[in-house]
Amino acid sequence: MHSLLQKQTTALQKRPACKIEVPERLTVSHEALVKNGLADRCVSVPVREATDADILLVHSEEYLEAVKKTPYMTLEDLKEFTQQYGDVYFHPNIYHCAKLAAGAALQLVDNVMTGKVRNGMALVRPPGHHSMRSAANGFCVFNNVAIAARYAKQKYGVKRVLIVDWDVHHGQGVQYCFEDDPSVLYFSWHRYEHQKFWPQLRESDYDSVGKEKGAGFNINVPWNKVGMTNSDYLSVFFHVLLPVAYEFCPDLVLVCAGFDSAIGDPEGEMCASPDIFAHLTHLLMNLAGGKLCAVLEGGYNLTSLPQSVCQTVQTLLGDPAPRPANLDGPCKSALESLYCVRSAHRQYWSCLKHAAELPTSDISTKRIKLAEEEEEEERLEEAKEEKSVEEKVWPEPLKRVTPPIRTALVLPNDVACPDGCKRFSSSEDPDPLIVNKLRENFLKDTDDSNALTTLSSLIALIEKMEKNEICNGLALVRDVSMATMCVVQHAATALSNRVLVVCVGDAVDPSRGTEDGKTLLVQFSNKESEEQKCKYYIPVCLKKGCSDVSGFTQAVLGLLLPLGYKYDPSLVLLVRTPDSGLCDSVWRQLAGLLQGLAQGHTLVLMQEGEKACVGPTASSLLGEAAPSLGQLHAPLPKDVEALERLRHGLQADWKLLQTTAPETGGGDEH
Ligand code: Q7Y
Ligand code: ZN
To answer: Which pTM was predicted?
Structure first.
């Protein structure tokens, strides 16, 4: 179902050699995929050379003709040719490799757009995102991803393309290509250090938002410090990229998948762990109906690169992501960037309308001020710097073991079990202690033996999830409220681990919640509820309940996900009441997104009558992409206000909710 492209690892260059953009990058990545049993699970798509017509979608004829001559040049001529560009190395074979790299990206687009594969990754070199219409740059010859975007638009009539550039460098070539084009949304984060880091461009800063019709469709997140962590990356996803991406509603997602943003990379000097790429990938996989093509860009540490590639590919294959660990919250510098980006874009995106405004006069002065501070610090840190060159070490990501059963269903006998799922009922007699407790607490005034069977099945199911024998599950129950209470109570008393309870509609009486943090209850409804003091009960009140798609989506991306990631549960309980008003596609998005948590251990509870929803919900649990929500309109101002208030009130307790760096404190230094 998935594709993997790889070829052209022919040993290249002796000189004028690039020391880091080396053929081994591909061989070690591929070997790691084989070693982890991932290569076998992928479909290998043959590469082809990009044609002149393909390349001319982005590059000028003069440039193409010039590059075409390089295989016949003497080394002397090559050297001279190279020198007109910045930081790029031409070898007699690079024109061929570059054609294969771009062609591989196009083959991937073809296979994804025609539905032959769901998604995929192209392992290619040279990278592409720095190359411009008429110039090679930063190891890049042809702009693989930019060509792929134009190609998809032209050949498949794709209306909107999202390009996510998580490489640690700014893909200025991609920015220039689509600057005035509202049909291609380009997002890039990059090491910037107030313009001191390569390629040192003024236009890599957050205030380059696109031009003319394309204003708002170029999003730059400058990192002004090195050492950014998982928390910093996720915060930007939650509070900038995802809300905007959902509002934009792409038909295709392309990823400039550079892994020089991972720990250990000599160029990036960031501290994000390889498994963060599982989450970044997962969070994008429910956009565009799952049509996602990742194309390798940078990544020069031959240990963290293959680890990161494996995390990405394994996620594309549908395996649940590992638990996100150590999410302390974003650092001060990241919050500064976040704040600036959000305010620069608030006029273009309704999801950011409420972002704090940065007085326009402040923007440039702030930059200068920060740059000066930075210089001061740098002087102080100069001595330390030599030490920081020492090799980073980090634990190898654990092998991701996928349970033999993906989705188990507890269903009344008259409801059919969808393909790919397994009907579940507890085979053993339930533990009498548990039964008694259930009787006592929940079944006092019923003698419903069906209810008892269902509840004990639920508990058995949770236990199998805890043991990682089953990944996730779905149950139709007579009384969703009672079943929820039952699971929550069982979790709080019998499980040692944390449970995130997400209620869509009022299913749960908050007084049953815990204050010790064993459960975190987030409840969406339209009922104004008294301010809740407890850190672990969070009522989210939306005016139209869950029926306003924009408001609800914003609440999920900007509130629920950051809470969930920070909380790091071992189980997610997702509950929906019959009157929730939530439409099917949003529900499926929610179920899909929440699987990034708890290693994908989600238990969904729905009321017996909702038989029609079993199929769609199960498909989300099986890892199929949810359908797109359509371009989102502005949420109700009242809801936006309420969400903002909630976020502000909670951000001291839940650091991933932060979007601004208060003048003093807030956000930790690295
Ligand atoms: C490009 C890259 C693409 C001073 C040193 C500058 C430039 C490195 C370019 C990196 N001339 N080094 O990694 S993803
Ligand atoms: Zn890079």
So the answer is: 0.94
